[in-house]
Amino acid sequence: MSVGTALEQLLRLIHRRAMKLAALPEDERDLHYDLIRRTCCDAAEHVGQSPDKAAITANDMVEFVRALVGIIEVGREPDQGRSADRPLPARHFGSRENVTTPSVGASLVSPIWRDIRRTSGAGSR
Predict the structure, then answer these.
(1) 15-35 tens-digit pLDDT
(2) Residue 62 burial (CB count, 10 A)
(3) SS3 category, 104
């Protein structure tokens, strides 16, 4: 499989997970973001990144997913009479890095990494 095809599949998987997260109440999302962070960090280390670099990669991935969820939420909001020259209100999608409880929604993230390992051959080391 080409790198381009693998990236395309990864982005589609991330989009689907973000859509599911956007459907959850905000107070239920942090557990899922924590799971994304942990599984991404593990996967990055598995393919050879140092623990420090893997942590940075994992945090970047979580922030990307948070931003995508924010975009999805803004897209679902009614226009409320907004004109084309009136910008959307600024929104903050901050993280809560201290979540340590295991997620009950592992199904949101684990398929991403299972598919990445399957398509990239990373799981066959």
Answers:
(1) 999 999 999 999 999 999 999
(2) 21
(3) coil
